Structures are given as C-alpha cells and as structure tokens.
Amino acid sequence: MLSLALAGKPNAGKSTFYTAATLADVDVANYPFTTIDANRGVSYVRTRCPCLDRDERCGNCEDGIRYVPVELVDVAGLVPGAHEGRGLGNQFLDELTNADAIINVVDASGGTNAEGDPVEVGSFDPVEEVDFIEDELERWLAGIIDRNWESVIRKSRSPDFDLDDALSDLLTGVGAREHDIAVVLRQLEYPSNPQEWTDDDRLTLARAIRRRTKPIILVANKVDIAPESNLERLAETGKPVIPATADGELALRRAADAGVISYHSGDDEFEIVGEVSGAQEKGLRRIQQLIDEYEGTGIQSALNTAVYDLLDHITVYPVQNESKWTDGTGNVLPDAFLLPRGSTPRDLAYAVHSDIGDGYLHAVDARAKRRIAEDHELSEGDVVKIVSTAK
Ligand SMILES: Nc1nc2c(ncn2[C@@H]2O[C@H](COP(=O)(O)OP(=O)(O)O)[C@@H](O)[C@H]2O)c(=O)[nH]1
Ligand SMILES: [Mg+2]
What we know:
Layout: E1 3-7, H1 14-22, E2 39-48, E3 65-74, H2 89-94, E4 101-107, H3 126-147, H4 149-156, H5 163-171, H6 178-187, H7 199-213, E5 216-221, H8 228-235, E6 241-243, H9 246-257, E7 261-262, E8 271-272, H10 278-294, H11 299-310, E9 313-319, E10 337-340, H12 345-352, H13 354-358, E11 360-365, E12 370-372, E13 382-388
Parallel strand pairs: 1-3, 1-4, 4-5, 5-6, 9-13
Antiparallel strand pairs: 2-3, 7-8, 9-10, 11-12, 11-13
Helix pairs in contact: 1-9, 3-7, 5-6, 6-7
Residues 14-15, 34-35 line the site of magnesium ion.
C-alpha cells in the first residue's frame, strides 16, 4: 500500500489531520509532544468509480465515489535540530523511512513558533518551517550516508566496485531503489574516488535523494485564522500548497458519523440532516464558508494531490469477468489498485499477486472488450481482465 507520512513541527495540526483522515482516536491537544509513538492508520484517496459508466452502482463505492486505501502515518513533531536528536528527534525521522511522500502540515496562521509553542497569530513566518522541515529530513539522510561512508570506501578497493550498487545497499532501507540512485547520480557531479568525497558532496547527494524519494506537499493548515499574506508567501515557495482546516474536517466527519450532516470527505458542500444546536449550526456554517472559499477543507484534497499529482499514480480495477466486471464470486469492481503512471497490464498482474504476474498471458480492456498489448500504458479508471496461468 502507498504510504503517506504527516510531518511537521509540533502543534501544526498533524494529529488532527490524522484523526480526521482515519477517524481513529489519537491524542489531539495543544501540547508539543502528544504523539509519543507514530500512529499508523488507513486513509483513502477519492476517485470516480468506473461503475458510473454502467447502469447499476457496484456496491463497493458510495454513489460513484470510490475510496482507495493508502497508509497514513502521524509522525511526532520535528523541531530544528531533530536530526541530531533534539526534541523527539531521530526515532521519528526513522518512522518516515517507509513513506512514499510526505505531507508537511504547516501552521499557516503563524500562531506557533518553530518549537510549536503558541505565539501571537501572524508572528511566526510559516515559510521558515517549510525550510527547516525539509532541511531536517535531508540532514537525517545525510547522516545515514555519513555513518556508512567507511563501508563505501572499503568496497571501493575492490576491482568490481560500483558506486550505484554501494549506495543502493546503503539506502534501500529508506525507500530508495536502485533506479532512484542511478537517476540521482546522473544529475550530480562528484569525485570518482569515494575517499575524496566531502561532507558537502554527501549532503548534496542526500538532498537529491530526498527530492526524488520523499517528495513533499505542503498543507497550509488553520486557514480559519491564517492571515492571507501567509498563504501567499507559502504559494510563492513554488511547492504544491493545499489550504486546509484539519479542525473543520474533523468536525464534519464527526457530525457525519453522528448522522447530523450528510457529507462525504472531499465534498464541496454538506447538508444538515439531523438535530443541531444553535452553536453547532453556527460552527457548521462557518466551515461551509471556508469550504466555499478554499474548495473543500483541504484534507481529502491533500491526500489526492499527494497520490495522483505528486506521486503521479492512477487507479486501476482488475476483474475476472470482462462483461460483468466481477471477480469469481460476482462481486462488481471488487478491487482498486494504485499504480504509478506508465504501468502496464503485466505490472497490474504483479500488483494483484506475484503468481498472477509470473503466469501472465494477456490482458483484456473490459470497457472496449479488446485485448491490450503487454506494453500498453494503463490509464485512470481502467478496468482490466488479466489472463494468467495462475488462478
Ligand atoms: N484554528 C485551527 N486550529 C487547528 C486546526 N487544526 C488543528 N488545530 C489545533 O491545533 C492544535 C494542535 O493540533 P494537533 O493536531 O495536536 O497538532 P500536532 O502536534 O501537529 O499533532 C490543537 O489545539 C488543534 O485543535 C485548524 O484547522 N484551525
Ligand atoms: Mg500530534
């Protein structure tokens, strides 16, 4: 499963985001280190279900809204110096190891400092936190490379030494594949003898690896109290920025859970369908205003942007029966897989099961009812029958 990590300084709203997005009970408080262990949960990206192109809904979506699971990790707050063990330091950086992308939750209100302590709203520059979080991640990676450099030097004495291989060994643990290392090394200039590498060379390598293997989107949280100028400054960083209110989304999900409103995460409106007090209604109206202004609460949009834009994935639906779009038991569109754009039917087969991949014979586009070539690039919403010697 794809894994997204919520990183950021303390009190930015990570746990609120996490709770809203997973609706699991974790600590949410105005206290710097509420999250002592990383919380892992399941959240969902939202997409259009292919059953909308048929007469009947499939039963695995909500009125044509399909939710596809991703792992979400709530990482405890990072403070400047975390890579050297400050705050809750390194152990938490290590929890980012499996992340395919990082959602940096930023307090766009400027109402907390770099340590997460409350200050007057508007007095802390959120761009500072964007920079230090990125820097901490990169220095943490550089630390891993530094600590293992001796072994690279040792290997370099062997006649069949290959820097790509040595670095792959060193960095597979943080989610960098051989291909990533090869691409990154091609972009950089460095001494051919590992003994001549400087700390700066290793930091430059770490920064490039981070950009490639742990891309970041910014969530500009607390828009309900954020000065407009802060949102503009965040946008000027040139990074993807999603304005958000984690508190607002949590309130909506809880109200929906309690049957008070009808709301699907990511909707741009909701309807009050149950009994509400005057105060509750006022609160809900305020959230609706924010939704109108920012096109949603930003939570679903952040998850979707991370998976579909930043990681450039598509949703593909394997079926066994190409006319009915069912599995062997008659379940319509039972599974949805998130695959990198450019994936082929064979890649889908391997995602379903390695045996299905090994036994791959051919595939059928279940919309067009046509065989598709082995190297055909799949698209968002494709429904595909895999024919394999494995069952
Ligand atoms: N005004 C405002 N406060 C928020 C929002 N989201 C979270 N908070 C508050 O920010 C504080 C810290 O939230 P928490 O999720 O514990 O932050 P974490 O330390 O990053 O996990 C809590 O008091 C939340 O209620 C929001 O959208 N607007
Ligand atoms: Mg927290």
